[in-house]
Amino acid sequence: MYYNAYKSDKIEGDEDIVAKPSRSMVVSMRLPLESGQRLKRMAHRHGWTASDASARLVEEGLRRSEFAFIDFRDSPTGRQAYIQGSTLAVWEVVMLLHSYRGKTAAVAKHLQWPEAKVRAAERYAHAFADEINHAIRENEAVDFAVLSRMLPQAEVIRKTRKA
Q: Is residue 2 in some structural domain?
């Protein structure tokens, strides 16, 4: 999981960051039977409790309402913030911003997006810097050796100069 519904102390686990809530509030809600069953299926699929799943979904909904163009999706590495209408996670847009030295217009031109979408990623990343920086570090930890274990067909292709 790359985002965390709690303000917390982070403990590195095998694959995920485990959250230890420092402050929380109990909120009771009544769901239609069908919604409750769907919530439990989602929680089971992710290995969460129904309470954890509902807290995460509420947090995602709040973030969606507070940040333009942000959506959340399951990915091979857990739930992540994505830019709506694209296949790019926010951390990927942030990496592009780094490579273009923070020039929003240049990234927007590269992606053929309106600048507002790039700024949305930038603002989300600023608000949730730990989450985005963790995702970038995880990406940087994958080198060719790791990738080739996951994708045995991967090979290095070297360009040769024409005479």
A: no
